[in-house]
Every structure is written in structure tokens, then in C-alpha cells.
Amino acid sequence: MAAARRGSASSTALSSVPLQMLLCLSGTYFALYFLATLLMIVYKSQVFSYPQNHLVLDLTLLFLMGILEAAQLYFGTKGNLTEAEAPLATSLMLTVAGSLLSVYFLLWQTLVLWADSILSATLLTFHGLEAVLQVVAIAAFIS
């Protein structure tokens, strides 16, 4: 149970269980997404004519996305479980950045396979749901 906040006498837990479940599911999905995307980039570089500078760009953005996603999940979990607005707001900003990178891998990657589209659209859906639940949780924590 969460401790009483800001001197109030009630001990109601404001943490969002759906947000916490979605963060866990999203973390698992992202690990699979990262591995699948990395393997598809290797496949595309071997089978298709993949310019070297574009290969470096795609790999760099994928690893940057991994770092952002790890930080987003950390701050999202920390903010939700401690019922703190600042880490959850940080997680929300990182979710937006991750969504932009998802759009890159969905639309603007050098070679976009059908599997890339499905994986990136699913990740974008997770990010959208997380953003909505994070905004709801921040609103609950503030009030």
C-alpha cells in the first residue's frame, strides 16, 4: 500500500495498475522488437543493396531507441510506483521521443519490410496507450 501523501489522512493508492502492466508488457515487447529489427537490418544489408551510411544511421537510431526505451520504462515505473509526477512526466517526454523513432522505423527507414511495418505500428500503439495512461496517472497524482 502506498503511504499517505502530503499529510492527508487517507492511505489510498494512486498508482495505476493498468499503466504498470502496460509498462511491463511494453518492455517485453520492446526487447523482442529490438532483436527483430536488428536481425532485419542485418538481413536487409546482406540481401539488398543497403548504402553503408544508411546502415550506420539505422543502427545508431535503433540503439538510441533502446536507450530511450530503457530510460522511459525506468522513469515510468519509478514515477508510477512512487506516485511522483516528475519521473512520470520525464517518462512521458521519452515516450514521445520513442514514438518519433517508431515513426522513423515505420515510414522513413531506408528499406521498410512488411514485418517492419507491423512491428513498428504495434510499438507505436503501445506508446500511444502508455502516453494516455501516463497523462491520466499524472492528473490523479496532482489532484
Task: Give me some keywords for this one.
143 residues, mainly alpha
Strand content: under 5%
**Average pLDDT number:** 92
Alpha carbon gyration radius: 18 Å
| Helix content percent band | over 70%
Distance between the termini: 19 Å
Low-confidence stretches: none
| Major sheet characteristics | none
Number of strands: 0
Multimeric state: single chain
Q: Please give the count of helices.
A: 4
- Compressed to H and E, one letter per element, the order equals HHHH
Q: Class by helix and strand content?
A: mainly alpha
**General form:** elongated
Structural notes for this entry:
This protein is mostly helical. The chain is 80% helix and 0% strand. It contains four helices and no strands. Helix 1 runs antiparallel to helix 2 and helix 1 packs antiparallel against helix 4. The two termini are 19 Å apart.
Task: Quickly describe the structure.
It contains 4 helices and no strands.
Helix/strand layout:
Elements lengths: L16 H31 L4 H31 L2 H24 L5 H29 L1
